[in-house]
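Hey, resending since the last one bounced:
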Amino acid sequence: MKIETLEVAGIGPAVRALRNPYSNWSLSDTKHGLIGQKDMHLSERLAKSGGSHSKHLRMIQVWAEIWAPRYWWQEFDTYRHGVERLSTSTMHTLNSRPLTRDDFEWDGPYEDLERLMVDLNDLIDEYNSARAAGTALDVELAFRQLKQSLPECFIQRRTVMMSYQALRHMRVDRTGHRLREWRKFLDWAATLPESWMITGQVPEFKVYDELHDD
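The structure tokens again:
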């Protein structure tokens, strides 16, 4: 599994929006792009109050390129709210080249993977031959056989856009998961700017009771 951060946007506007429900913008202590202690406390308090109160986290978006096996994508696809993805297409690209070891997340004996790749590459050759000389029915059958033989460990590349609220939700759901891909994904999320908004691990600061301060 590989994850590449492409862009993060919206942190500044999201912090500004924190104060809108209370109309207490004068209490903001964020200056020159550095989030202040009071604003951190308010952000975390809203996040802990539930999704309907943490709308500011929806305003922060991260774009990433992710290479992961199909078995992990099946679980990732559980998350719909605040997530968009655009994947490479097996329909259009699966037959473009022979498959190699790098196309699979494989923990078993290498000899087993070699046999699997030979079988799949034979099917790719059959599909390409059918496209070159066969009937439409031959092409359809060859492609169906290739797709049906593709294992869950096959790595697929996707460009994904996620909100910080969605990432926070994933962290709650998937911390301690048995799949190491989830552990790697959550470790990556913890490297993002102001990742305390995702992890809930707010830096040490004085706690303010803003309801009383207002």
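The chain is about 45% helix and 15% strand.

Sorry for the duplicate.
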